[in-house]
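Q: Got a minute? One more chain.
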Amino acid sequence: MLVIESWVINDDSPVPVSSAGVVEDLQSRIDSGQLETWLTSSSGRLLAFVTNAERAMVVLLEGEGDPGEHAVAPGTAGSSDGFVLSNGQGDEYPDEDTVPIREAFRLVEHIVGTGSWPAGSRWVVDR
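A: Always. Here it is, folded:
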């Protein structure tokens, strides 16, 4: 029997988010100034989403302490700042280590729905 894991936004309601609603939830958080979002799955995996509202870093971890894997845009030059963490720290990341926000939304939606990266997406394993 196939069991799909469920995901919750760490500092929101304990009610699981659906793949159909997670993008709306992320957009609402961005609109309210919350640029860092962590989701936890029922199997203990973590999904991080940090954005500057134009690009986003998407990181999937197997659990606490795992270096994880993150979405990339190979060959993209430059860097972007404005990635404000929940503790107030502002970060800057190379653009090749982030993806355009629409792509980040697509990645998160797919991971929440299936538990894995979508076919054709690019990511780097940091383990």
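A: The CA atoms of residues 36 and 86 lie 6 Å apart.
Q: Perfect, thanks.
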